[in-house]
Amino acid sequence: MNIAKPAALLVAATALLAGSTVAATAATPDGVRVTGVQQVADQVLAGHPKPLSATSDKVRYDGLTLTEAPKGKVTAKDLDCAYGHLCMVVKGTKFDFYKCQTWTVNNWTGDGPFTNNQTPGTVASFYNQDGSTRWTSTAYEAGTATWDPIYSLRPC
After folding, report:
1. pTM above 0.70, yes or no
2. For a tag on the chain, would you pick the N or C end, based on fewer CB atoms within 10 A?
3. Between 4 and 112, whose confidence is greater?
4. Are 99 and 155 spatial neighbours (Cβ–Cβ below 8 Å)?
């Protein structure tokens, strides 16, 4: 019995469950390779239109850019979040929101740093599955958040 394929699937599944995006790659049905950042984007932003652009290390939507998070233990200070932006790390991926709209998200789990570097007083809201507010952040604020269960957010 050949166990190489099941073993490779187990390693990939373990990496994904652990939040790793570094080694995760896959192929789309048309054979195009996608990076871990793209996989996370596909997983957590499934209800949104396709991205405007995607490279091996960056996925860009209208109002959101995803990149691989800095290596190691990441804190809010490590996020390099531009003024007017809301940044966070989820599943090893940095989310950089810069457009005021509601974003529906799926499979956000674990804890991660965030920086609300929007104009002073701007309130970012994070919502439960039923649409009720789970928590808010008023700019400027930075810290660590628990992402589960976040089902949507509005940066402003």
Report:
1. yes
2. N
3. 112
4. yes
